[in-house]
C-alpha cells in the first residue's frame, strides 16, 4: 500500500514537475503569466488520444509529434498575440495585467475548440496497462513510463539550459532582461524561444498525462493552477525548484487522496500554497527579492 | 442647476426600472433580472479591482457561496437571517484570501483567486458527500421573480452609491494613490494592505448577496451549477469593456455584453465559449482602458485641433 502510494505520488509529481518547468520558463524568462497553459497541455492529451483511437498510433510517437507542435503553436501565439502587448506596455505590472487578461481569453477559445471537437466527456485510452512488480507492489507500466519520461525530459532540459551557450543566454535574460542585450543577447528572440519551449514542455506533459489519467476538455484549468503553485513554490524561473516542488506536490496529493480523502486533494494543495505565501513568498528555493 | 437635473434624471430612471416588471412578460423579466445581477456584479468587481488594479477571478466563488447558503439553510431559517449568515461567510472567505495575498504582488492574488471557485466547489462537494450524504439540494422559497428583481435592483443601486461615495471619500483618495504608486502611498502614511482588504471584503460581500438573491431562481442547486467559472469571466469582461476605473463603466459594459451573450447562447450554444474568448482578446487589444476612456479620447482629439488636450 505504502510503496504503491509512494510510486503513484512520484509519477504524479514527476508530471507536475514537467509541466511546471514549462510554465516557469514562460513566466520566469518571457514574463508572461499564461493562464491558457493548462489548455495547451490538454490539447496535447487530446492529440495523443485521437491518434491512438483512430490510427492506433503509439503515444510515444505522439510525444515526438506533440513537442514540435506545441513549440510552433506557442511560438505563433507569442508572436501574434503577446508580442504586441509586450511592445505596448510600459511597465512590468501593465504587461502582467495585459498578459493575464489576453491569455484568459485564449483559455476560453482553446477550451471551446476542444469542446466542439471532442465534447465534454471523460476521455482515456489504454496503453501499457499491465502491472510491474516493484518492491512487492504492483505498479502499472504506463505510470512507470510516465515517470521515466517526465524525469528524462525535465532532466534533459535542465542540462540544456545549464551547459549550453544558448541555455546560458536564456538564463541571462531571466536574471537581467535589461542587461542581457549589452552582452550581445537578442532578448526578444530569447524570450520568444523560452515561451515556445515552455509550450513544447506543456505538450510533452499533456501526452504523458494522457497515458495514465482520464481527462476532459475542461481539466486544463486545474493543471494551470497546480503548475502555477509549483512554480511559486520552487521560485519563479528556477528549474530545479520546480522539479522538487512538483514532486512534493504530487506526493502530498497522492497521500492525502489515499489516507485522508480523494475529495480533499485540492484543499491540501491550497493549504501548501497558503503556507508558502505566508512563510516564503519568493519560493522554497528562491532568495528574497525586492 | 445641472446637478439638480442630473439627480432628477437618475431618480426618474430608477423609478422607471422599479416599475418595469409591470410592463414585462416572464421572458422580459428574466432578462432584466439577469441584467441587474450582472450590472451589480461588474460594479462590485470594479469597486475593488478598478482602483487597485488587482484582477480578481473569484467572483463565482462568492456568488456560489451565497447561493449554496440559501440552498442549505432555506428550510430551517427565515430568509433575512440567511442573507446575514451568507454575507458573514462571504466576508470570512474574503478576509482569509485577502489577508494571505494582498500584501504580496498582484500575481499571487490572481493565481489564488483563479483556483478559489474550484477549491470551494470541491470542499462543498466533499462536505455534502461525506457529512450530509446528499449532493444537490432543492430551494422552495416563497419569493416571486418581481421580488428578486427589486432586490437585485436595490443592491445594484446601493453598490453604485457606494462606489460614488468611496470615490469622493478619504479612502477613495488613498486608493487612487495606491493605484498610481504604492511606494508613494506607503510613504504618505496610507495603510495599503488594510485599504485593499477593506475594499476586497466589501466587494466580496456584495457578490455573495447577489448569489443569495438569485438563488430562488434555481429550484435545484448543486456545486457544479452554482460554481460555474463562466460567471467570473463574464463579470470581468463586462467591467473591462466599460472601464473599471469609471463609475458608470461597468454598467455601460454589462448592458450590451449581457444582451450579446444572451443572443450568442441562444443562437450559437456550441461555439459560445470560443466567441466569448475571441471577444475578450479583442477587447484587451482594442480597448485596454474601456469604452468610456476610448470615447473621451477620440472626442477630446476631435475637439482640440492642436491635440494638446488629448492626454494618453
Throw out a few tags for this protein.
heterodimer, A: about 290 residues, mainly alpha, ABC transporter involved in vitamin B12 uptake, BtuC, two-stranded antiparallel ribbon, globular, B: two-stranded antiparallel ribbon, 2 strands, disordered C terminus
Can you tell me about this structure?
- The complex is a heterodimer of chains A (290) and B (312).
- Chain A has 290 residues and is mainly α.
- Chain A has one domain: ABC transporter involved in vitamin B12 uptake, BtuC, CATH 1.10.3470.
- Chain A has ten helices and two strands.
- Chain A has helices at 2-28, 37-55, 59-88, 92-118, 141-163, 165-175, 187-212, 220-234, 239-259, 265-279, and strands at 131-134, 137-140.
- Chain A has a two-stranded antiparallel sheet.
- In chain A, strand 1 and strand 2 (137-140) form a beta hairpin.
- In chain A, helix 1 (2-28) packs antiparallel against helix 7.
- The radius of gyration of chain A is 19 Å and the shape is globular.
- Chain B is mainly alpha-helical.
- Chain B has one domain (26-303): ABC transporter involved in vitamin B12 uptake, BtuC (Orthogonal Bundle), CATH 1.10.3470.
- Helices cover 76% and strands 1% of the residues of chain B.
- Chain B has 14 helices and two strands.
- Chain B has helices at 2-19, 26-52, 59-73, 79-101, 106-132, 145-168, 170-180, 182-187, 192-214, 223-226, 230-242, 249-267, 272-286, 291-303; strands at residues 137-138, 220-221.
- Chains A and B meet through helix 3, helix 4, helix 8 and helix 10 of A and helix 5, helix 11 and helix 13 of B.
Quick summary:
The complex is a heterodimer of chains A (290) and B (312). Helices cover 74% and strands 3% of the residues of chain A.
Amino acid at each position: 500500500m505504502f510503496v504503491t502510494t509512494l510510486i503513484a505520488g512520484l509519477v504524479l509529481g514527476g508530471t507536475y514537475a514537467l509541466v511546471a518547468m514549462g510554465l516557469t520558463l514562460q513566466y520566469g524568462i518571457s514574463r508572461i503569466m499564461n493562464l491558457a497553459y493548462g489548455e495547451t497541455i490538454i490539447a496535447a492529451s487530446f492529440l495523443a488520444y485521437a491518434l491512438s483511437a483512430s490510427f492506433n498510433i503509439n503515444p510515444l510517437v505522439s510525444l515526438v509529434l506533440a513537442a514540435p507542435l506545441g513549440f510552433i503553436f506557442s511560438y505563433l501565439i507569442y508572436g501574434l498575440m503577446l508580442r504586441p502587448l509586450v511592445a505596448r506596455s510600459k511597465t512590468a505590472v501593465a504587461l502582467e495585467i495585459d498578459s493575464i487578461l489576453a491569455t484568459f481569453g485564449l483559455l476560453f477559445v482553446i477550451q471551446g475548440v476542444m469542446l466542439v471537437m471532442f465534447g465534454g466527456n471523460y476521455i482515456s485510452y489504454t496503453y501499457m496497462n499491465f502491472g510491474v512488480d516493484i518492491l512487492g507492489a504492483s505498479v502499472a507500466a504506463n505510470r512507470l513510463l510516465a515517470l521515466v519520461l517526465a524525469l528524462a525530459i525535465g532532466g534533459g532540459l535542465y542540462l540544456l539550459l545549464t551547459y549550453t551557450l544558448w541555455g546560458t543566454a536564456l538564463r541571462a535574460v531571466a536574471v537581467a532582461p535589461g542587461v542581457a542585450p549589452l552582452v550581445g543577447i537578442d532578448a526578444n528572440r530569447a524570450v520568444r524561444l523560452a515561451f515556445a519551449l515552455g509550450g513544447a514542455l506543456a505538450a510533452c506533459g499533456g501526452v504523458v498525462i494522457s497515458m495514465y489519467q482520464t481527462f476532459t476538455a475542461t481539466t486544463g484549468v486545474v493543471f494551470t493552477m497546480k503548475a502555477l503553485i509549483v512554480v511559486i513554490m520552487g521560485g519563479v524561473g528556477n528549474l530545479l525548484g520546480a522539479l522538487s516542488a512538483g514532486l512534493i506536490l504530487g506526493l502530498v496529493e497522492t497521500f492525502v487522496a489515499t489516507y485522508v480523502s480523494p475529495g480533499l486533494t485540492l484543499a491540501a494543495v491550497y493549504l501548501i500554497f497558503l503556507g508558502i505565501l505566508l512563510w516564503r513568498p519568493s519560493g522554497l528555493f528562491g532568495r528574497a527579492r525586492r | 442647476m445641472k446637478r439638480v437635473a442630473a439627480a432628477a434624471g437618475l431618480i426618474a430612471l430608477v423609478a422607471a426600472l422599479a416599475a418595469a416588471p409591470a410592463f414585462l412578460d416572464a421572458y422580459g423579466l428574466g432578462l432584466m433580472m439577469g441584467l441587474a445581477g450582472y450590472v451589480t456584479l461588474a460594479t462590485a468587481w470594479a469597486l475593488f479591482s478598478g482602483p487597485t488594479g488587482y484582477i480578481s477571478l473569484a467572483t463565482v466563488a462568492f456568488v456560489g457561496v451565497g447561493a449554496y447558503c440559501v440552498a442549505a439553510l432555506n428550510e430551517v431559517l427565515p430568509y433575512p437571517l440567511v442573507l446575514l449568515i451568507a454575507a458573514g461567510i462571504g466576508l470570512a472567505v474574503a478576509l482569509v484570501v485577502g489577508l494571505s495575498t494582498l500584501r504580496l504582488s498582484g500575481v499571487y492574488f490572481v493565481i489564488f483567486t483563479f483556483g478559489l471557485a474550484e477549491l470551494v466547489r470541491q470542499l462543498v462537494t466533499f462536505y455534502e458527500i461525506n457529512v450530509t450524504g446528499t449532493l444537490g439540494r432543492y430551494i422552495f422559497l416563497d419569493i416571486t421573480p418581481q421580488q428578486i428583481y427589486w432586490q437585485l435592483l436595490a443592491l445594484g443601486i446601493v453598490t453604485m452609491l457606494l462606489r460614488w461615495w468611496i470615490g469622493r471619500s478619504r479612502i477613495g483618495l488613498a486608493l487612487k494613490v495606491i493605484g498610481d504608486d504604492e511606494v508613494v502611498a506607503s510613504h504618505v502614511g496610507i495603510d495599503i494592505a488594510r485599504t485593499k482588504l477593506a475594499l476586497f471584503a466589501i466587494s466580496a460581500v456584495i457578490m455573495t448577496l447577489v448569489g443569495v438573491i438569485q438563488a430562488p431562481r434555481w429550484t435545484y442547486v448543486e456545486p457544479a451549477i452554482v460554481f460555474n467559472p463562466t460567471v467570473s469571466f463574464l463579470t470581468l469582461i463586462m467591467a473591462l469593456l466599460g472601464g473599471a476605473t469609471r463609475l458608470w463603466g461597468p454598467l455601460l459594459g454589462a448592458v450590451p455584453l449581457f444582451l450579446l451573450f444572451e443572443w450568442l447562447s441562444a443562437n450559437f450554444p456550441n461555439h459560445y465559449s470560443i466567441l466569448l474568448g475571441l471577444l475578450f482578446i479583442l477587447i484587451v487589444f482594442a480597448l485596454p482602458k474601456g469604452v468610456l476612456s476610448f470615447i473621451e479620447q477620440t472626442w477630446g482629439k476631435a475637439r482640440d485641433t492642436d491635440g494638446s488636450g488629448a492626454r494618453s
